[in-house]
Design goal:
Blueprint lengths: L5 E8 L2 H12 L6 E6 L4 H13 L3 E4 L24 E6 L3 E4 L3 H11 L6 E6 L2 H9 L3 E3 L16 H15 L11 E4 L8 E5 H6 L8 H13 L3 E11 L3 H7 L4 H10 L2 H20 L16 H12 L5 E4 L2 E4 L1
Parallel strand pairs: 1-2, 1-4, 2-3, 6-10
Antiparallel strand pairs: 4-9, 5-10, 7-11, 8-10, 11-12
Helix pairs in contact: 1-9, 1-10, 2-10, 5-8, 5-9
Length: about 325
């Protein structure tokens, strides 16, 4: 509960490889009344991981897909029918949000409650193409390759080397508590498609427009819903979360030390550290008792086209690694 509002976090879930970092940071917040896990996977080991979560904290609730259908991002929209209580603020985290600013909840909820005119509010998201372009254009970071204000920008969305360089630069700064260097205030956004890695809304808004979110959750929230409601969205960049990877970046990042860097940051939060240990034991038990299917984390590899394989090879072997400079330190990817 925060200032007379119930606080419910939701995550379309879920890949245990990343959620082992996310869940402890969410549950470490005393303001969170409930954590709804939108069960949107059929992978046995991930399901075993999700089944273990309510046993660790009674605030966790597993929510089945309302239409009995699990189909990746196409089946997320229906879950919003369970997220429209009028006295509640909802915060949605992608399952690969791997770091949350320690005072995120209090600061972002203050912003959200004070500005009911916005449909969605979003924190600054590390590794989100629009946020990366914003950071570049406000001179919070300097990048050796330009990033455009485009949701699928070829650097900000698709380039794994850029994502690694950005994460490494940010974790270096965050390890000394310097994430405030990237804070920049509020940025309203017009009818424009962006990646909804972390968003916040009032339940009463969805209650007033119960059919607002349909099959394409992201486009509905960012493009169609502002038209239907007459409300803008807003990035509140004085709070930060980190998003691990978009699909084109993942294979490259999976060979990096990014997750280990963020785990060290998460462990610096005392309230999250014990849950991190508990989830490590849960995952170890699952790996022993369940047969391996697909890649680690429950993802089944999708064959790459020859064009994509050649493009990835070119990026790794022929292009210079991108550089990201945050404030006064240069980190090379």
């Amino acid at each position: 509960m925060y200032k007379d509002h119930k606080i419910v976090c939701v995550t379309p879930a879920g890949r245990r490889r990343y959620m082992r970092l996310l869940v402890p940071q969410v549950l470490a917040c005393p303001f969170v009344d409930r954590y709804d896990i939108w069960v949107n996977t059929a992978e046995p080991r991930d399901l075993a991981f999700l089944d273990a979560l309510p046993k660790l904290d009674s605030r966790v609730r597993l929510v089945a897909q309302p239409d009995g259908r699990v189909d990746g991002s196409r089946s997320i929209g229906a879950f919003h029918r369970t997220a429209m209580d009028e006295d509640t603020i909802y915060i949605r985290f992608d399952d690969d949000i791997i770091w949350i600013q320690p005072d995120f909840f209090e600061r972002h909820l203050e912003f959200r409650i004070a500005r009911p005119q916005y449909l969605l509010t979003m924190p600054l998201i590390i590794n989100n193409a629009i946020c990366s372009a914003l950071l570049g254009n406000t001179h919070k970071i300097a990048v050796s390759r330009p990033i455009k204000f485009e949701v699928f920008d070829r650097i900000g969305y698709s380039d794994g080397m850029f994502a690694e360089a950005l994460h490494m630069a940010f974790t270096e700064v965050a390890s000394t508590g310097g994430w405030g260097k990237l804070h920049g205030g509020a940025y309203p956004i017009a009818i424009s498609h962006f990646s909804i890695n972390c968003i916040c809304w009032f339940g009463r808004t969805l209650a007033a427009f119960p059919d607002l979110i349909a099959s394409d959750e992201e486009v509905d929230w960012t493009v169609h819903a502002p038209v239907k409601t007459g409300m803008a969205n807003c990035f509140a960049t004085d709070t930060i979360v980190s998003h691990y990877a978009f699909y084109p970046q993942r294979a490259y990042l999976d060979r990096s030390a990014v997750l280990e860097k963020y785990e060290r940051l998460a462990r610096a939060q005392p309230a999250a550290a014990s849950l991190l240990d508990s989830l490590a034991l849960v995952i170890a038990d699952i790996e022993r008792s369940h047969p391996r299917i697909g890649r680690d984390g429950g993802e089944v590899a999708i064959p790459l086209t020859l064009r994509r394989r050649l493009r990835n090879w070119w990026r790794v072997h022929r292009q210079a690694a991108p550089e990201v400079r945050i404030a006064d330190g240069l980190i090379e990817g």
